[in-house]
Amino acid sequence: MAGASISEMILFIAALVVAASVAGTLTSEVAHVGDAISARSLDVADQVRSDVEVVSDPAVGVYNTSGDGNVTVYVRNTGSSTLPTGADGVDVLLDGRYRTDVRLTVVDGGDTWARGSVVRLDVPAPGLASGDHRLMLVVNEDEEVFRFRT
């Protein structure tokens, strides 16, 4: 009888050790998943705060309107955060080619691209061929595509 209760005690202790290790592993993994969800939600919140819309009319013409060979579009900040006005804050692709020589000018003359403000975006493109074109803007992971014809 004593031998049976000792073996039952050993099995009971072994079961407790296995259950404790499984519970510890599950608790640790749940904590990691929770941290990942929290980090991702902060990224999504930043993306939601950053939103822009191209307000130019492609039917009126956006190329070479002032004779300088630029593509000129007007972009409104429709998000809830202030956006950078430097060229490094906006990624521009014209017909699939990345452009670094862009200029942003706040239309109302302010220094910041606040919510509701409009900027004038000038992309030098001398000699742009006639036909259909595509301008893609990326601001804080918000992508806008503007199609126009020259």
From TrEMBL:
One of its GO terms (molecular function) is structural molecule activity. Keywords: Cell projection, Cilium, Flagellum. Transmembrane segments: none annotated. It holds the Pfam family Flagellin_arch-type. It comes from the Archaea. GO terms for biological process: archaeal or bacterial-type flagellum-dependent cell motility. This is Flagellin.
